[in-house]
Amino acid sequence: IHPFPNGNGRHSRLMTDILLFHQLKQPRCSWGSGNLVSAGDCRQQYIDALRAADRHDYAALLAFVRS
Asked: Are 66 and 59 in contact (CB under 8 A)?
């Protein structure tokens, strides 16, 4: 599930942006326009949205990537 010891999130966000921009001709995501590496509100919102998506509730994640 996690192919790298570190950098899985960065890799996933990069691949999402590549798919959206180059394949689907959609704008890149803003990913909350905050720091997703250090502890803080932005990272917590991201983690909460990912956990909801794990339960098949994608609304928070879709809102977050465009915020």
From this structure: no
Q: Tens digit of pLDDT per residue, the chain (67 long)?
A: 566 677 788 888 888 889 988 888 888 888 888 888 888 999 999 999 999 999 999 999 989 988 8
SS (H, E, C) the chain: CCCCCCCHHHHHHHHHHHHHHHHCCCCCCCHHHCCCCCCCHHHHHHHHHHHHHHCCCCHHHHHHHCC
Burial of 49 (0-12, 13-18, 19+ CB in 10 A): buried
Q: Name the pTM for this structure.
A: 0.74
* Whole-number Å distance between alpha carbons of 24 and 56: 22
Contact 20, 28 (CB under 8 A): yes
